[in-house]
Specification:
alpha/beta, 465 residues, Rossmann fold, six-stranded mixed β-sheet, Protein-Tyrosine Phosphatase, Chain A, UDP-N-acetylmuramoyl-L-alanine:D-glutamate ligase, 3 domains, globular, 14 helices
């Protein structure tokens, strides 16, 4: 079957296209933002990418059109699909039909930590020779790609996003994933462009909990009140994880090295175990606990789990070290929510307790571009010594009354004694960092986009200095 993807270079769409290609379908698509690494991954697999959206791209007509959730009415290809009555669907619905049905679906959800936890889950199953199919919204370094096609496997591991599915299907993506094992890491307000309140987000999670069969399991973070609330009434058994006393899988005696987190697992009905995961921070201890609970449910031993943890190599853009330039170490992270920023900086501070940390943040997500977290963004940089913030992305698409005010955030930080700078773009920030940075400093860039090529700009400035 010839599948045509509108918006093929998005992370989810691109990895989905690659997965369907690996399952034997002919795949092509279009996009108006074609850049590495996704463009290279698609080209390596022989997938044709047409630049821009044009009516002629749909001639001859494909067997099925997959419309990405970034597409809306008015897009010329979307309009052509509708005008010509071409068969179309969303990526989540296609995955449900072609990949998930009839399998044991392990779906990792939550506001934060989905990519890390689903990557660790996939690697744990792979390392224990369960050989899962998976689709993840990032690039796990153990696999070198965000998908794996194993149609003979019983297991499918999926990163389950609460964001909406498509312009014609406003349900959260994870509704399509038929969870047999549902992991819920945490729940906070996010995606302000589609959810009006935290209550709406909790309703979406209640509904996905209601999809888990009675012989499945819900793996829930006991440390998060919102998670505890949404799993009440689950028809499936609920297994909890966390650091609190009432968790079924509890982390005790947590210790941090300069590159890992060690803890003792006290598990109801299981022997105790010592585990170590090569990631830093309390957040990642919970991520590892979630995977441990799910893996034990599916019959893996603690030895199998630890072998996987020991060889886990993290994910691109999750506290990813980009290199050292002029004696300054640069990290990249996908953090784009105040909680994620705070936890990322806490983890970095564990690794560098005495060094000066320079944090650079781009307000780019549909939530942080708005003034919803105006106060919280002024409070989440406590573990940074110097803070830079750029102009909010796509400024013209928001009414002035809705916009985040970066200058006010920086002023609040300055009031509390931080060195804080608002500079409009990546070039200006890189130049200023080049002036300020000294050997031994640590720079971390936090954005869910390319941020104007800031990593290359920083490297040039630091080498030049």
């Amino acid at each position: 079957m010839h599948l045509y993807f509108i918006g093929i270079c998005g992370t989810a769409m691109g990895n989905g296209a690659l997965l369907l290609r690996a399952l034997g379908h002919t795949v092509s698509g279009s996009d108006d933002s074609i850049y590495p690494p996704m463009s290279l991954l698609l080209a390596e697999q022989g997938i044709t990418i047409l630049p821009g959206y044009r009516a002629e791209n749909l001639s001859p007509a494909p067997d099925l059109v997959i419309i990405g959730n970034a597409m809306s009415r008015g897009n010329i290809e979307v309009e052509m699909v509708l005008d010509r009555r071409l068969p179309y669907t969303s990526l989540p619905e296609l995955l449900k039909r072609e990949v998930i049905q009839g399998k044991t679906s392990i779906v990792v959800t939550g506001t934060h930590g989905k990519t890390t936890t689903s990557s660790l889950m996939a690697w744990t199953m792979e390392s224990a020779d369960r050989r899962p199919t998976f689709l993840i919204g990032g690039i796990p370094e153990n696999f070198g790609q965000g998908y794996q096609a194993r149609p003979e496997s019983e297991f499918v591991v999926l990163e389950g996003d609460e964001y909406d599915t498509a312009f014609f299907d406003k349900r959260s993506k994870f509704f399509h994933y038929l969870p047999t094992t549902l992991v819920i890491n945490n729940i906070e307000f996010d995606h302000a462009d589609i959810f009006a309140s935290l209550d709406e987000i909790k309703l979406a999670f209640r509904r996905v909990v209601n999809l888990v069969p009675r012989n499945g399991v819900v793996i829930a973070n006991a440390d998060d009140e919102n998670v505890s609330e949404v799993v009440q009434g689950s028809q499936a058994p609920v297994v909890t994880f966390g650091i609190t006393n009432n968790a079924n899988f509890r982390a005790l005696d947590i210790q941090y090295t300069d590159h890992s987190s060690r803890f003792r697992v006290q598990a109801v009905g299981h022997p105790e175990a010592e585990l170590e995961v090569p990631m830093l921070g309390e957040f990642n201890v919970r991520n590892a606990l979630a995977v441990t609970a799910a893996a034990r449910h599916h019959g893996l031993s603690f030895d199998e789990i630890q072998r996987a943890f020991s060889s886990f190599r993290s994910i691109k853009r999750r506290l990813e070290k980009k290199g050292e330039f002029g004696g300054v170490t640069i990290y990249d992270d996908f953090a784009h929510h105040p909680t994620a920023i705070r936890e990322t900086l806490r983890a970095l501070r564990l690794r560098y307790p005495h060094e000066r940390v320079i944090a650079i943040f781009e307000p780019r997500s549909n939530t942080t571009r708005r003034n919803i977290f105006q106060t919280e963004l002024a409070e989440c940089f406590e573990n940074a010594d110097v803070v830079f913030m750029s102009q909010i992305a796509r400024l013209n698409l928001l009414k002035e009354a809705e916009r985040l005010n970066p200058e006010a955030v920086m002023a609040a930080l300055q009031h509390h004694g931080k060195d804080a700078y608002y500079l409009q773009d990546a070039s200006a920030i890189a130049h200023k960092v080049g002036e300020l940075a000294k050997p031994g400093d640590v720079v971390i860039v936090m954005s869910n986009g390319s941020f104007g090529g800031i990593h290359d700009l920083l490297r040039e400035e630091l080498i030049k200095k």
